[in-house]
Amino acid sequence: MRWVLPDHIQDALPAEASRLEALRRKLLDAFRAHGYQLVIPPMLEYLDSLTTGAGQDLKLRTFKLVDQLSGKTMGVRADMTPQVSRIDAHLLNRRGVTRLCYCGSVLHTLPSTLTATREPLQIGVELYGHAGLEADIEVIRLLAESMCVAGVPAARIDLGHMGIFRALAAGAGLIPERQEELFGLLQAKDVPDLKLLVKDVASPWREALLALPSLYGGIETLDHAAERLPDLPDIRAALSDLRRLAAALGELPVSFDFADLRGYHYHSGLMFAAYGDGSPAALALGGRYDLIGAAYGRGRPATGFSLDLRELALRVDSQASAGAVLAPADDDPALATAVARLRAQGQAVVTALPGHEGTWQEAGCDRQLVRRDGGWTVVALEGEI
Amino acid sequence: MRDSAVVIRLTRSPAGYNHRSEYIKVAFVSRITLALSKGRIFEETLPLLAAAGIVPTDDPESSRKLIIETNRPEVRLVIVRATDTPTYVQYGAADLGIAGKDVLLEHGGDGLYQPLDLNIARCRLCVAVRKGFDYQAVARPGGRIRVATKYINSAKAHFAEKGMHVDLIKLYGSMELAPLVGLADAIVDLVSTGGTLRANNLEEVEDIMPISSRLVVNQAALKLKRDLIQPVLDAFSGAIKP
């Protein structure tokens, strides 16, 4: 059992690494083209700043260690979103809209699902300083474009709204602990236990809470929601936001789910998730979290999404990237020119070293440069050499 | 798009395999898979399946097949161990599953929708002790007992709620033996008629919770295959016996 990696921790070997890197570049390029500026927060920082305002869940998922310099407890980031919020709220201090993107490894003490890695490669965008629906539309469009750029088959966007849950939970007069329990039951669409929890809640809150798990599906869900939920300003506003959003995203395949709740401690409004054919869970998650910046001293409207590149890489068609070209060990200046030209075109060229053992295929070569008619030509690499 | 699918055609050429994807019209682009266990759950699910117009083509008791087709080409069943059902559904290996509440509590139904209590395979999770054992004397805050069980999480949560310390012994079967041979003071187990307890001179001293089977659904499947799953959900929901 030597050199075995810990559970839920893995290497990315050349084939997978090149897929991950290609995806990372494509997404960061797409983000940059929309004006999102890259930030690189540290791998670890003081625990307080990593988990301020976050729920118990994130605290448990954060690896901790003691800083030998200060004696304070540090955490290895389990999520980059709070770090980026800290940067926006505390370091950049811009007055206007700030668009940031990021990509990096995060560590989880516990894997989030049975197959999940404990070291996701998180990539995402955040838009700060705009509370309007236009910001949400921009971010959701960027998410859809990311799915498209990545090549996710049959990607679709699922929308929900935290405002509805918060309005109903407040109306029902549930104490915070009960609200968190309610939140969990709604997430699981656990109607049997939900019935028990709300049996003493007054009308119309009880009926409305019981209706939430079945309010999911296409655009008709908005009409069903308007019929079955109480006519409150917050709920009316949420439904009208969703309706405007659906109209603005007209060409994208969207669906709705009023019980698909996440981020009890930080989400404040619109929430969205991206699904692709064949994946057992959402590929990307996002939404509004206008409250989180306040923990860092400056509350700012915020919306964004993030995803795990490793998970994404599993779900997209892996176009095998072109292999490398083998150049023989030869002093001919014409060969050096040919090699330089190929490399300038973006091709990988592997130069043979004297006494090389093993086959060239294992070095990733599928073509070779051969001398032909006095010049150098690329031909397919035939057989095992 | 519902009636078309992308197929990938592989063709062999001297240079190797080529593949080409194209759209074709097919009857069904997707199918749904329901995971359930043999025995009581399977038997009691049959009427619910019938209500949804689904009839299995094989009987898992007599057939050794693990994948069972039904009269509906887009629906198939997979026969799994009861404790594995949530795992299959969570991984997306099955879209739907039928699992006891006990299994979901132990597995932690994380990442699963559990929209329906099917009210089948009913029983109770209880604490039982050897007749004559004074359970009430230890069942108080600060009390300490040794408990044998298969349901570690549920037992831990139950005794923690009561403020009792417990030393849990994980067993995989024949729980009733443990108190008789002095391995444990009490057991936490499922009881339906109480016959096994009586036959082994044990008595039930505390009810933890009623148990029945739930329909569990993979979260992404409910969104992506709603057209196929929703009718099954509705039919099951209408056929549940009180």
Instruction: Provide the CATH top-level class of the largest domain in chain A.
Output: Alpha Beta
Distance between the termini of chain B: 40 Å
Number of domains of chain A: 3
Roughly how much helix do the residues of chain A carry, as a percent range?
25-40%
H/E element order of chain A: HEEHHEEHEEHEHHHHEHHEEEEHEHEEE
**Count of discrete alpha- or pi-helical segments spanning 4 or more residues of chain A:** 13
Structural class of chain A: alpha+beta
Q: Give the uncertain stretches of chain A in residue-range form.
A: none
Radius of gyration of chain A: 26 Å
Quickly give the structural class of chain B: alpha/beta
Q: How many helices of chain B does DSSP assign? A: 9
- CATH fold name of the largest domain in chain A: BirA Bifunctional Protein, domain 2
The description of the largest β-sheet of chain B is:
6 strands, mixed
CATH architecture of the largest domain in chain A: 2-Layer Sandwich
Domain Class II Histidinyl-tRNA synthetase (HisRS)-like catalytic core (chain A): 8-312
Pfam family, one (chain A): tRNA-synt_His
Protein name (chain A): ATP phosphoribosyltransferase regulatory subunit
Family (chain A): Belongs to the class-II aminoacyl-tRNA synthetase family. HisZ subfamily.
